[in-house]
């Protein structure tokens, strides 16, 4: 690929990202006005889990994001049908969402359920769990914030355990019970549950 084409492609990608972040900044400034902390699900799928969690935890304000439009639309329908005023669902990429999150808002709890494991070694760079992403989450968290991770993929489980163990901002909480169970559209297709919990430390 010619160098000028690469440059143009990067400029386009940067402009698109900036536009997405600006859109999210405006949206979150309204939807999170007056709030100080949220329960955050990264990759909410069809919203089964977070809608049920929000209904069971009315004292928490929950935000779920996903990149796929029809998933977010289904999630919003669950919020509407359940008449839940403590949860919102947004179409957003995780790092863009975290960049756009108002400075006054902290992550109180983070849930990452069955993320794409990108099983081929050449694709591991696409896995969300890495040092950079853990940095981003840590910057928006406070001491005591809990990070909950669940996967059916044994390799991604060990990958995540290793990355969290090596990160200064997070401490694994061995044997911690999973805080809330709700069978989801995706979980019905999984063959195993492998859970990790970590706590933000300063």
Secondary structure layout:
Blueprint: H1 3-31, E1 37-42, H2 48-56, E2 62-66, H3 69-81, E3 87-91, H4 94-100, E4 106-113, H5 131-139, E5 141-151, H6 154-165, E6 170-172, E7 194-200
Parallel strand pairs: 1-2, 1-4, 2-3, 4-5
Antiparallel strand pairs: 5-7, 6-7
Helix pairs in contact: 1-4
Describe the structure using short key phrases:
202 residues; alpha/beta; globular; 7-stranded mixed sheet
Give the overall form. globular
Alpha-beta content class: alpha/beta
- The fold-level CATH name is Rossmann fold
Helix content: 25-40%
Please tell me the CATH architecture by its name.
Answer: 3-Layer(aba) Sandwich
Q: How is the main sheet built?
A: 7 strands, mixed
Radius of gyration based on Cα positions: 17 Å
Total helix count? Answer: 6
Number of strands: 7
Can you identify the CATH superfamily? Vaccinia Virus protein VP39
Low-confidence stretches: none
């Amino acid at each position: 690929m010619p160098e000028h084409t690469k440059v143009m492609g990067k400029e386009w990608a940067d402009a698109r990202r900036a536009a997405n972040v600006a859109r999210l900044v405006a949206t979150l400034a309204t939807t999170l006005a007056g709030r100080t902390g949220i329960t955050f699900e990264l990759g909410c799928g069809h919203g089964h889990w977070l809608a049920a969690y929000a209904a069971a935890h009315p004292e928490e304000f929950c935000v779920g994001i996903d990149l796929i439009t029809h998933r977010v639309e289904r999630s919003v329908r669950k919020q509407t049908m359940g008449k839940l005023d403590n949860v919102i669902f947004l179409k957003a990429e995780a790092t863009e969402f975290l960049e756009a999150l108002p400075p006054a808002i902290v992550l109180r709890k983070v849930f990452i359920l069955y993320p794409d494991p990108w099983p081929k070694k050449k694709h591991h760079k696409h896995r969300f769990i890495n040092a950079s992403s853990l940095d981003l989450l840590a910057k928006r968290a406070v001491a005591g914030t809990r990070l909950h991770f669940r996967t059916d993929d044994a390799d991604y489980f060990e990958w995540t355990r290793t990355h969290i163990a090596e990160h200064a901002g997070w401490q694994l909480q061995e044997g911690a019970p999973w805080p809330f169970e709700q069978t989801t559209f995706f979980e019905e297709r999984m063959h195993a549950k492998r859970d990790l919990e970590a706590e933000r430390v300063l």
